[in-house]
Amino acid sequence: MIDFNLTEQDVRNSAAHFAVEGEIVHVEECCNGHINRTYFLTYKNGEQTKRYVMQMINTDIFKKPDEVMENIVGVTEHIRKGYVEKGIDPTRRALNVIWTKSGKWGHVDRRGTYWRMYDFVEDSDCFMAVESAEMFEKVAYAFGQFQMQLKDFDASKLHESIPNFHNTEWRFDNLLTAIKENRSGRAHLIPDDIKFALDRKHITSYINKGIANGTLSLRVTHNDTKLNNIMMDHETGEGICVIDLDTVMPGSVLADFGDSIRFGASSAAEDETDLSKVYCRLDMFEAFAKGFIEGLEGSLSESEIRALPMGAMILTYETGIRFLSDYLDGDVYFRTEYPDHNLDRARNQFKLVADMEAKMAEMDAIVEKYIK
Ligand code: GN1
Ligand code: MG
Questions:
Q1: Nearest 5°: phi and psi at 31?
Q2: Which of 250, 230, 365 is nearest to 308 (CA)?
Q3: How far apart are the first and last CA of the chain?
Q4: Angle formed by the axes of helices 360-368 and 341-358, nearest 10°
Q5: Candidates 30, 34, 261, 262: which one to mutate for ligand 1, based on the most atoms within 8 Å of Cβ?
Q6: d(CA 36, ligand 1 centre) in Å
Q7: Helix or strand or coil: residue 284?
Q8: 48: three-class secondary structure by DSSP
């Protein structure tokens, strides 16, 4: 298991291996993200200061960090090239990997921990909650464009950074194993939550079947399209740079659409425990659908557009069963801040699922409007 007890000195020692001029004047930990550890570093070089993002890759989860970084370097170079061809300055529009002094993508410290560094995307912010429908439409457009930018990327060059990542049937089997093994000894505490999950087995094959029968096509997708994985430009409010590219892999458009909805169209945070506050906002659903379909520039088929509401529900369900499985496994995957954090997250996601089930006809009617 990875040792997460890092001191600022550990961070500074690793940073010294990267090809950055100047001295570190400030180190700040970023509290977002359930998997990797992220730090913002400010360097001073003469009169100039410049910021960087340094991350410790969680190799318990990303078992082949070299392959993850090969994906990221390939994808970001492809995106940059696309902007240059269009005569647009690619700076701030694609993550820029900082190499080490010895010319590698990252540094492995004495403890065997993997570190990587990127330029900080200046004059932009990421958000934990949607502030307006207009903003969410811009997020959606940027995620749609991200897929468009990778349309001609050779998917056979991509490594599968986490096998079966959005294979809902596989996630369901994992839940069954977690229930059976009950490593935390908590299964008896949550019969209703387990029942809710098991009762919905029939939805787990929806995406796999769609890909198999051709109603859903396989694309290069981001696979972790949370609102906080996109940087929004201070001036224009545009989604300027898609970040957190660890899980870029071939997948269905439903994964990217669904994950965005489950997080951004929710009326509350992912771990809100007052479930009366948790529901799917249809205004946000519509804003996202509109921006996403436009960002994909007409490349979504009718059957894909019609499947978007199911995608939202399935991805919310899938995330719920992942949290529940981790609770049963004893909180070994997601970073938690208190003992029942994963259970609270699972219940929150299940409340959203139930609300989406009730609103399915309304969501269907919304996407129908965007079929030309
Ligand atoms: C994780 O690390 P973060 O917060 O960007 C997870 C996503 C989940 C999300 C739930 C590699 O993403 O799949 O949807 O938490 N990433 C991985 O908030 O498992
Ligand atoms: Mg993230």
A1: -90, -5
A2: 365
A3: 51
A4: 70
A5: 34
A6: 9
A7: helix
A8: strand
Ligand nearest to the CA of 229: 2
Kindly give, in sequence order, each residue whose CB lies less than 8 Å from that of residue 166, ignoring residues fewer than 6 positions away. 207, 223, 251, 252, 255, 315, 318
Q: Token pair for residue 159?
A: 């490594």
* pLDDT tens digits for range 10-23: 999 999 999 999 99
**Cβ atoms 15, 114 nearer than 8 A:** no
Instruction: Tell me how far apart the 2 most distant CA atoms of the chain are, in Å.
Output: 63
User: DSSP labels for 207-246?
Assistant: HHHHHHHTSS--EEE-S---GGGEEEETTT--EEEE--GG
Tens-digit pLDDT profile for residues 122-133: 999 999 999 999
Read off the pTM.
0.96
44-51 long-range contacts (CB < 8 A, ≥24 apart) are 45/21, 46/22, 48/22, 49/25, 50/20, 50/22, 50/120, 51/120, 51/122
User: Per the structure block, which two tokens stand in for 348?
Assistant: 């929150």
Report which of 357, 147, 175, 176 is spatially closest to residue 251, judged by C-alpha positions. Answer: 147
